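Weekly modeling sync, notes
Attendees: S.R. (lead), two postdocs, one rotation student

Agenda item 3: backlog of single-chain predictions. S.R. asked that every request posted to the team notebook include the full sequence so nobody has to chase files. The rotation student volunteered to paste the first one in as an example of the format we agreed on. Action items at the bottom.

Example entry:
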Amino acid sequence: MVSAFLLIECNHGAIESVLSNLVKLGPEIIYKIAGTQYDIITRIHADNKDRLKKLAAEIRDLENIRSTLSLIILTH
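Predicted structure, as returned to the notebook:
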């Protein structure tokens, strides 16, 4: 099992729209945050590194996402 935190910056006023689309992709945890460049932090899991990259790419391609930062978790 491979995991990562994905920090997401949304277009202005689009956080709720992005959140509803994220729920459909099934990340483990989703947090709305304030006071940083990023609006949402999510934790994603996959069976292997390639699937994790694919899931991160699917999230990046969602409408109203301006940018992302992926942080791979090496141990847990």
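Discussion: group reviewed the output briefly. The mean pLDDT is 92.
Action items: rotation student to repeat for the remaining queue; S.R. to check formatting next week.
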